[in-house]
Amino acid sequence: MKRFLPATVFLVVALLGAGITWIVYQAIRDTAEAEFESLANEAVDRVTSRVDQHLSLLTATHSFFAANGRAVGSAAFQTFISGLDIEDQYDGIQGIGYAEMIRTGDEARAEAMLKREYGLDRTIWPETDQQYRTPIVLLEPHDPRNDKALGYDMFNEAQRRETMQLAVKNRAAIASPPVELVQEITTVKQVGFLVYKPFFADGANAGGMPDGFVYAPFRAGDLHAAALENPPILPVVLKTYDVTDGEPQLLYQSPAFDQLRAPNAMVDTVEADIAGRKWRFVVSSTGSAAAYADFLPVYALCAVLIVLAGSLAAGARWQHKAVDSAVALHEASRRSLEEKELLVQEMRHRIKNSISRMMAIARQTAATSDTLEAFSTSFSSRMNAMANAQDLLARSHWGRADLGDLLKTELGQVFGDQLQKSQVEGPQINLNERATQALGLVFHELATNALKYGGVADENAKLAVRWTYEGKRDKRVLKLVWAEKGNIVPAPPETKGFGTRLVEASVRGELGGEIERRFGDDGMSVIFTIPAKSIN
């Protein structure tokens, strides 16, 4: 579990950092969106405020008619409208006019008014199937567009008629749905709308039809341009819809809307009441959120938190490695002390065994030696045999000794240069310490006897030693044959010397093996059968 600690630390800190970064990012983005929302509201306020200003002109005109009754001529009306300075101060409103309410069939009175006030020989148009008509008889400022509209019966068209009826019902100024104004006489046309305010000459005809309507035609494109193109220019584009009747009807769209709108633009939707109609403004930013917000602190914070997470993870990993190193060093020290103690104990045991063996050899050698010189020679030879075995073990750090090397070492010590006349062959077998010490003495005793009594020294006999493994698993044994060809022994000795007893004690006593001696016409041989588990 500890190896996952650095990754866990990095993951936890990274997740916390991601959460903090996300919170900061959202805060900055929320601030940017709030700023954009403020801009969107400002853009909508500019449009709605301009409409309200225009409606105040309509209210002033209605008051002018109320003050003068129906006896308002074109000259007085022109003077009043000129004083309002519509053309220079109120872009978007096409003009202010008066439409008289008449019964169908009474068109002559309206036509006479057009002739008298504007010098127009124009019949009321178009033809109608309605009971009432509302021809435009006054419209200022007088220009080619407005001149085209004089005499037009607005009550004939369904949307205009419904708007006028609603205005009469509510006794208020009511805007129409989007329409095409009759003033649109050029190929480049704009969507328009009209606002009607009913006029009652007596001021109290609540239940009947009005004497006429004070009204204002608007060009939606000019209205929005006048509101939005005054400095400071807002970095937004918008679309305006009339949604009063459920189905959105487009009133206005900013020029090059799709080109100016940013790919990841922020969007805000605002609805407003315009003279009894509901308009919806869809405002989009001309730049992405990054244009309204500075995300550099977010990037810096993210980088710092990533570095912090990496540093903490690296620190945890280094600490983990330091702890592991300390534990490993402690464990190595403990094992080293245990190995040293074991080695000391093993050395004590081996030294004790070696001393016991040397003392036994010394006692037996002394018992069978006639003189001190004979004792010294025999004892020295046997000590050398033990020393040779000890040297082989020391070379492998008290581990193993090769049987072939052990045999050749002992034969070389006894026979010297005559060793090359002996045949020694067998597979490589590694002996443990006990088997090395035991077989070293055995080989020394056999070689010494062969040198003294077997005729090997004077070339009357030849020595051959062969060994191999026989059997499998638990029954596996080492079989070693020591053959002295030419050493004719008529009969087995009746008594056993110290050398023979030492060999039997080493093979049978220490290694649990068996010894078989054979005496034949061609020579004498000794066969050793030793369990493999005793020597490995």
Question: In words, what does this structure look like?
Answer:
Helices cover 51% and strands 20% of the residues. With 536 residues, it is of the alpha+beta class. It has two domains: 7-290, 2-Layer Sandwich (Beta-Lactamase); 369-535, Histidine kinase-like ATPase, C-terminal domain (Heat Shock Protein 90, 2-Layer Sandwich). It has a five-stranded antiparallel beta sheet with strand order 4-1-7-6-5, with helices on both faces. Strands 13-15-16-18-17 form a five-stranded mixed beta sheet. A four-stranded antiparallel beta sheet has the order 9-8-11-10. It starts with a helix and ends with a helix. The model has no long low-confidence stretch (mean pLDDT 84).
Would you spell out the secondary-structure blueprint of this structure?
Elements: H1 5-68, H2 74-84, H3 86-89, E1 96-100, E2 102-103, H4 107-118, E3 132-133, E4 136-140, H5 144-149, H6 158-170, E5 174-175, E6 192-199, E7 212-219, H7 220-228, E8 236-242, E9 249-253, H8 257-260, E10 265-274, E11 277-288, H9 289-292, H10 296-368, H11 372-395, E12 401-402, H12 403-415, E13 423-425, E14 430-431, H13 433-453, E15 462-470, E16 477-485, H14 498-510, E17 514-519, E18 523-531, H15 532-535
Parallel strand pairs: 13-15
Antiparallel strand pairs: 1-4, 1-7, 2-3, 5-6, 6-7, 8-9, 8-11, 10-11, 12-14, 15-16, 16-18, 17-18
Helix pairs in contact: 1-7, 1-10, 10-11, 11-12, 11-13, 12-13, 13-14
